[in-house]
Amino acid sequence: MLPTSIPILLVDDRPENLLSLEELLCNREYELVKAKCGVEALRLTLKQDFALILMDVQMPEMDGFETAELMRANLKTRHIPIIFVTAGMKDLQFQFKGYDAGAVDYLAKPIEPLFLQSKVRIFAELYKQRHELELNKRELENINVLLAHARDASEAANKAKGSFLANMSHEIRTPMNAIIGMTHLALQTKLTPKQRDYLNKVNFAADSLLGIINDILDFSKIEAGRLEMERTDFFLDDVLKKLVSIISPQLQAKKLEFLIDISSELSNSLLGDPLRVEQILLNLLSNAVKFTTSGEILLSVQLVAQKENIVSIRFLVRDTGIGMTEEEQSRLFTPFTQADTSTTRKYGGTGLGLAICRQLVMMMGGGDIHVESIPCVGSEFSFTVDFVMSNLQPERAVIPSNDVRGKRVLVIDDSTLSCEIFSIQLSSLKFSVTTVENATDGVSELIKADSSVPFDLVIIDWVMPDIDGFDAARMIKNHPSIRHKPKIIITTGYGTEDTPERVLHDGLNGYLCKPVSLSQLFDSIMGALGVGAPISDNIRAVTDTVDLLSIRGGTVLLVEDNEFNQQVASELLLSAGLCVDIAVNGQDALERLSAKSFDLVLMDVQMPVMDGFEATRRIRSKPEFDHLPVIAVTAHAMSSDSERCFEAGMNDYISKPIDPEILFKMMIKWISPRTEGGSKNATPVSGTGKTVDNDKTPSLPPSLPGINIEKGLQFCNCNPLLYLKMLHKFRDTKRNESEDVTNLLAEGDREEALRRVHGMKSMSGTLGAADLSDASRHLEDAILKGMDDQLPQLLKNYTVSLTEVIEGLTSAFRESETLADDSSIEVIDDARRERLLELLECLVSALDTDMVQAIKIAGEFGNELRSTALKHKNDEIQRYLASFDVDAVHQLLRELSEVLTES
């Protein structure tokens, strides 16, 4: 039963503070319980489960930190979220202590009412969701019991019963989709470890249960003759990519290598039933993973025969698992049985999967599934299906340019099968391939080739006996006999979240997770070789006298603590074809420099932890950095500031706001020209890497109060999209900045206030808000020089200028959005009507079988509706989908179908 009220515990030793909190949270939905000390709070939490605890930090006898630590130590209370309420945040160590004690957040006194209420509302919702999930869990357990009984009785089920179950598909799958969807959404929220553990287990159980339900429903449909095969155009690559994404977590958990071998002669565009192909292969692969503890799993897709536009394709799944005897194989395809009862107990499953797969293969005209197996060696399942070749055209072809064809590639992998697959793929891409099975042989091959025709690229497997991939890469990079250093890509069957960071740390050129598709391999190689990174038209517009192609691919370490400035500077550098790594302070920069080499350091001067001057002095103290250019980025423009930069060892400086043309010329001046680079005829792209389309350039407001748009555009490299992004970000994140600075000064935190004002000076200057930048500069000087008598007036000027800019942005964007809404109604022509009806049919089908796919299709459907008179229907569809009300969505789609058919 769901709770009728949300219990919230208020802990404070001062009655007036408790009363204040009680008044702010006056809500009939909340049950507010008060405690005057930590001991009383502990006693109450042992008696009652609370949705949230709002606790004062400073209390006599036992302060908030001690109380929180004791709560976290108790199994009964450790899940309750705690928000500390304090009169002063003090320093970072104070905050860290609170988080170590178990707090989820801080609220500073005086408390902003709306801020407090919104925070409490979030945890109240989480509390209700937790109770709902507990109810769902009990429901799932009951369903599991019912399904167990259903499985026991299913052997005796007749076709009438099968027909009934087939008709129940929608009714059974819909609540399961809701359970899985709500669990997924809950896992995206803030949770205690215990709550996350519960939800992960619910999610796993729900997925398993849905798999069982789907098997039973499919089997009953087959028995009732109600299962029909679709005929639709599809890309085989898309099916395989989806399989990889589904099966990869299971493979990684068991440290198994997964390889895909696809015939290079095979057409990627086919006509058939992709969902059923995926279902068969997923079942075979899942079984292979389930019964394999070590080794590798291979999925082979080969062309058997082709007659006109009909292709016969053989699918094979081979594992190195437990294998089977001939007797066990004879029982393999019998419904509701597995090889033996001990297997069922150890590995689980209904025994329906292979029986269904066999029926599906037969229905697709593929004959039977063949199995070959040897106990303790492994198993091999295969089947052949005929498809019609489709006319679908891929978005892009995987064709290497002439300047990379014939380049030499060395593959180092201890798996013979993996070497064979890479060899076939690379040969199809017109590379010259050599394969070896250990790092020692690989180094020997590189040394031998160095004096004749060196290798351009090395692809190394991470996990190998004796010497792993990263150690082998270091050997290659540091070996004195290998003078022509090749690009290096690491491959792995089970990468982790920190794999990209490790690749970057070791200065490698990329990594690939197995199984590797041809397109993934192609993209990774092109990236490693520096091909296809064209330069923006915007850069050419302001730097027609500067040749940026000569430094394309150069590496820049951007040292900047302000997120706003990070985005502007990094996008400018990326649009110039440079590679950018970001450090948030001087100490971070030193650590990154010790791990990786850079062509140039772009160093902000004023930063926390370690400023730019100190960081540069430490860089210059190390001989290996003697020739590393360090460019200061400073919001100060006085001659004394530039002298201080040079004294610290910086080579040059650039003032904020950064002028793109000056920045690019400085890059040319200090980065040595590179011998590698792409074609000068490369297609222009914007800073985001998308092709420039002048017809779709975002429109800016005609004017903005307090902002010189022309000047701001110049600082954003004449890129309207980037400039608009910056304006929106400024409006959304800086509206309370003057209030924050005022409070910081009142609390005596001059250092943080100075940092905030300094950041505002450079940010507003970049946007072209000259008055606000000047007001920030004057306020910064007064804080620095201790001119407290001038602070009230300067704070007032600062607030007035900031308010003008924020209100102007708010008004302008509101008007532009309203205008867009009023002028965007488009007529639904025949082509759009046909597209809408096609998407509507797909959405109706997906609603009962695959909620994730349904949400994706609904997004496409909404994009088509958004600019028409029916756009309000999209909002209703999205709202019902968010609450998993499938019946309501079906009703809306029926209404839309009638409207579109009649119009």
Short synopsis of the structure:
The chain is an alpha/beta fold and 903 residues long.
Describe this entry's structure for a reader.
With 903 residues, the chain is α/β, with parallel strands linked by helices. The chain is globular and about 90 Å long.
Beta-strand segment tally:
22
Radius of gyration: 32 Å
The shape is globular
Q: Helical percent range?
A: 40-55%
Tally of separate helices? 34
What's the main sheet like?
7 strands, mixed
Quick check: average pLDDT?
80
Distance between the termini: 48 Å
- Taking pLDDT < 50 over at least 5 consecutive residues as the criterion, the unreliable ranges are 339-350, 532-546, 676-697, 817-824
Structural class: alpha/beta
Please report which band the strand proportion falls in: under 5%, 5-15%, 15-25%, 25-35%, 35-45% or over 45%: 5-15%
Keywords:
alpha/beta, seven-stranded mixed sheet, 34 helices
What is this structure's SSE topology?
Elements: E1 6-11, H1 15-24, E2 30-35, H2 38-47, E3 52-56, H3 64-73, E4 82-86, H4 92-101, E5 105-108, H5 113-154, H6 159-167, H7 169-187, H8 193-223, E6 232-235, H9 236-253, E7 257-262, E8 269-272, H10 274-290, E9 296-307, E10 310-319, H11 326-330, H12 341-347, H13 353-363, E11 370-374, E12 378-389, E13 408-412, H14 416-428, E14 432-436, H15 439-450, E15 457-461, H16 469-478, E16 487-492, H17 499-505, E17 511-513, H18 518-528, H19 537-542, E18 555-559, H20 563-575, E19 579-583, H21 586-595, E20 600-604, H22 612-620, E21 630-634, H23 639-648, E22 652-655, H24 660-670, H25 709-715, H26 720-733, H27 737-746, H28 750-767, H29 770-785, H30 791-823, H31 830-847, H32 851-865, H33 871-882, H34 886-902
Parallel strand pairs: 1-2, 1-3, 3-4, 4-5, 7-9, 13-14, 13-15, 15-16, 16-17, 18-19, 18-20, 20-21, 21-22
Antiparallel strand pairs: 6-8, 8-12, 9-10, 10-12, 11-12
